[in-house]
């Protein structure tokens, strides 16, 4: 397994759709496949996605409440 790292500026320039082509991501996928860690990786990613969705939901609630208060004052 190679330990190639990519510069974050190159990832930003490529855009969000091409993140899978980054060397670090490819190495991660290879590591997961070679070591039979698909289930564990899925559990980790699902926990991350759940956490991010909760955070996003909380931020949206705050924005709506702020807009509601602002509208009420006017």
Structural write-up:
- Helix content is 74%, strand content 0%.
- The protein is an all-alpha fold.
- The chain has one domain (8-73).
- The protein is elongated and about 60 Å long.
- The model has no long low-confidence stretch (mean pLDDT 81).
Mind sketching the topology for me?
Blueprint: H1 8-14, H2 23-34, H3 38-73
What are the secondary-structure elements, in order, as H or E?
Answer: HHH
Based on CA inertia axes, which overall geometry fits? Answer: elongated
Count every helix, treating DSSP H or I runs of 4 or more residues as helices. 3
- Number of separate strands: 0
**Share in β-strands:** under 5%
Task: Give a quick set of tags describing it.
single chain; 74 residues; mainly alpha; 3 helices; 74% helix; elongated
Quick gist of this model?
This protein has helices spanning 8-14, 23-34, 38-73. The protein is 74% helix and 0% strand. By secondary structure, it is mostly helical.
